[in-house]
Fold this sequence. Notes:
alpha/beta, five-stranded mixed sheet, TsaD, binds zinc ion, 10 strands, acyltransferase, ATPase_NBD, iron ion binding
Amino acid sequence: xxxxxxxxxxxxxxxxxxxxDQGLLSHELYSQVKLHADYGGVVPELAxxxxxxxxxxxxxxxxxxxHTVPGDLDGIAFTQGPGLMGALLVGSSVGRSLAYAWNIPAxxxxxxxxxxxxxxxxxxxxxxxxIALLVSGGHSMxxxxxxxxxxxxxxxxxxxxxxxxxxxxAKLLGLDYPGGPLLAKLAEQGEPGHYKFPRxxxxxxxxxxxxxxxxxxxxxxxxxxxxxxxxxANIAYAFEEAVVDTLLIKCxxxxxxxGMKRLVIAGGVSANTRLRDKMAALMKxxxxxxxxxxxxxxxxxGAMIAYAGMQRLKAGQHTPLSASAxxxxxx
Length: 331
Ligand code: KG4
Ligand code: ZN
């Protein structure tokens, strides 16, 4: 089976061709980061227009790189939601139209299912069941994953997502959008022991997260601090440490609660080196195993959508031409 995958939920146009015998044959990614940087965040209308500009050339390139013609495809997977409505409409309209024209099935994929299954693209893929920590710009959740489509959300953020907290705190530190990776880089220069940020919602039972308080704490800390580069780096360090510790505490709790030994971490924030290092140490201590997507597939991409869509098609599912995009959609 060979699938074309299309991702357009936010500010990345991702297209990929995945084959169940040969694996990933091609993937193309166009990031709109530069377009939105001047505004300090994603401007939905600009995002939609840029997806319109890029999607067809990227599909042509992905097919050519995969030495694939439409007749070789068994289906098209597109991100159906959640995300920005206008952006989702681009990928879903193009995906469903091509599927109709080429007389193959189309399948709408949940963006977070794409992230969740991204580690399956790696040689060392996790076996079911596992606990997944999904940490992106729009979502933070812990999921008990029993198999494809068998997901129980154990906890999620009641306010900001982890990536959003990174981006907002980075903005307060005067860093460009998206600030997560830049804050992580600044934190590398930071020294421990200067600031202590709270670990939100770790002192009570449960697996939900809350990150908006960290941003407020960061705002107050920055207001009261000098703006020497070392001070800024120390604040970045303490913020990152608090987010990573909080995620670690909740993962340990979820693993204990379910008795599981396998942990998957995916979504944009899973690219964070300190998070990866600390989670690796935790899983070693617990005699378990941790799995991540490769860095290219932590943030949004078409490959994860192609993979997830293939699993859905194999299970006999497809999405009718009349189905609409779903900007809000529970996993
Ligand atoms: O999964 P993703 O590409 O998009 C959404 O589905 O939201 O995640 C993007 C998020 C952004 O908030 C970005 O700042 C964050 O992931 N991010 C990071 C790192 N790389 C990306 N956060 C912390 N450290 C990183 N190295
Ligand atoms: Zn994403």
